[in-house]
Amino acid sequence: MKKILLIIIVILLCSCSRKETEIKLPAPEAEKSDMFSVDKNINMSTIDKYLFLKDVAYRDVRMLFDTANFSDIGGDADLSATIEGFKIVPYPYIASLQALPVGNAYSGDTLFDVKWDESGNIISATPLYNESMLILKELFPMDKNIFIMCGGGGYANMMKLLLIHLGWDENKLYNIGANWNYKGKYKKELVIYPEDVNGDKIYASWRADYAYIPFEKLNKTNNKSNSKVKYTHFASGGLAEDYDFEIIFEESNSTFTAYQVAYSSCTCRDEIVNFKSICYVEILNTRDSGDDAAIRYITFSENKGLFGDSNPNYNDSKIDEKYYDIHLIKPLIGVTKREMDKFAGYGYCIDAIDVDAMTGATVTRSNLQSMLKSLFNYHKNKYYHGK
User: Is the pTM of this model over 0.85?
Assistant: First the structure.
């Protein structure tokens, strides 16, 4: 009898597991008539069929106690109920709000400063803390489908638009709509009315799986930089010394960080013409790891930088600033930290650079690669927290 019972239990467990893994999600498809683009297939009327799936992150983006006057439109400013399996991640703490149809909207601390146009599209999204992207990636895992709900559908729509803007796959993002309309069987009450408290309600917020963001413990971004970073400088002949380069400008947005870096390259000329070079470079903030961060753009001209080396090259007059731009600088666009880490010292060229084209410019190419290798390390530690 025990064996039979054990077999039945195993069969039941296996069938439940199959049910979880065999559900094929319909692709996200916004209901055209819905003002918040709530999904046509997965929404409050169907969500019970799609709960408790391993490849889905469930997010309720309401505040526990919202300051907005949602009662004016028949809503509830207090999070009185959610759905089992949903984590509470309040959108108003993530990013700036669009204009709401009610007054007294939240206007406090956020991880991102978002600028919206009149049509409800995102113009820009700037991280306000060094930890902003790290927090967002952990709360909204990029490798999972994400079901997003709120009270009326608006916060969920803003959250979805922000994630798409920051590089999430829109084919994994579902605005499942307004929890105020949920009539399913997995409702989790967060406001209760016990008989022994004389009819007064109790806020049972301890029941919620809530993502607390400690703004007072986070590190605000500093977009005005004069940071000094060590790199290995190479003189003619390969003499290596520890130098500092200076980040004279640093500004970060949701996609990349822009730097202006002043560094020494050729030091063999007379002091009056021995200029530092100023490199303008953009490095992506959106990759899965700092090692995969890549150069989005780089230049020494365009009123953003200064080419401080000999122009033309003392050894070969054809190697001038334009030649460097074609054969050394522009090929670095798309290069990742992982690739730049292969730079092994004086005379070495990473795969993106044509070493034959750069013969006779060993000091220039070596110091540029050395500087970028150190800049990538700085960028990884600051914007990817060393990961």
Answer: no
